[in-house]
């Protein structure tokens, strides 16, 4: 196992290369998941504000 | 649209249908990418013998070369969908082109960094301004340019059209990257995997490399599905189908 991790003396180059590969792809995979959540959250906020505004309008209409 | 295009393909071009289709495809592609990726890593790191000249350092090849292939492949996909977007004004083609750019940029970045880590011991330098390395850096800047231009416009579709133009012009760089090792004297070695004629590489090294190539292709489809879904929701946020999804996800 130590021999495997040593990579014939090239461990300082081989493992960072694999780490970069995994980290960059992981970041790339997570970005759209977070973006999708943000888009839907913002849309829900917008819809809620819209509904509240319509409710207010409806209330003033019945008052008058 | 012409009648020779099958109806299901026509339907797939509609955002809500594609959103659902991409949602079904996404987990399968991720699973395939992970399984194939692990098999390729095992084959490349454990089973493949050390190189007789480079020792174990050559093992960087199993992430470097598939990433480099993906950098070029994704550019091709981006340019083709940019062309379709410009000529037929299909919204989905615009989205596919624009959302391919960050994935291509990620793979190109991996290629440059892993290449640098490889070169430092084999060539004795992290970086040199030779044809292959410079054209690969230009590829990264083209991707970043497309991403930047897309987001520089207030109107998303106008931004997509401008960025699609840049993507099309930039396609000239793809053959330059590929043939740079033949056209100029460079530190970078020529291709060892050949489509035509025998490859100059041992089979025990080729199969992990090709497996990783398939794994990165699957990963690209997975990432593209997630990105296109998120972008379609943002673009169509006024539409009913998106509102239903937004409402449905609060219930959960």
From TrEMBL, chain A:
It comes from the Bacteria. The lineage of its organism: Bacteria, Pseudomonadati, Pseudomonadota, Gammaproteobacteria, Lysobacterales. The keyword Cell division does not apply. This is Heme exporter protein D. The chain crosses the membrane at residues 12-34. It is a single-pass membrane protein. Belongs to the CcmD/CycX/HelD family. It comes from Dyella lutea. Keywords: Cell inner membrane, Cell membrane, Cytochrome c-type biogenesis, Membrane, Transmembrane, Transmembrane helix, Transport. It is found in: Cell inner membrane. Required for the export of heme to the periplasm for the biogenesis of c-type cytochromes.
TrEMBL record, chain B:
Keywords: Cell inner membrane, Cell membrane, Cytochrome c-type biogenesis, Membrane, Transmembrane, Transmembrane helix, Transport. It holds the Pfam family Cytochrom_C_asm. It is found in: Cell inner membrane; Membrane. Residues 30-188 form the Cytochrome c assembly protein domain. It is a multi-pass membrane protein. Its main location: membrane. The keyword Cell membrane applies. InterPro entries: Cyt_c_assembly, Cyt_c_biogenesis_CcmC, Cyt_c_biogenesis_CcsA/CcmC. The chain crosses the membrane at residues 28-48, 68-88, 100-121, 133-153, 165-184, 204-222. The keyword Repeat does not apply. Required for the export of heme to the periplasm for the biogenesis of c-type cytochromes. NCBIfam families: ccmC. Belongs to the CcmC/CycZ/HelC family. This is Heme exporter protein C. It comes from Dyella lutea. The lineage of its organism: Bacteria, Pseudomonadati, Pseudomonadota, Gammaproteobacteria, Lysobacterales.
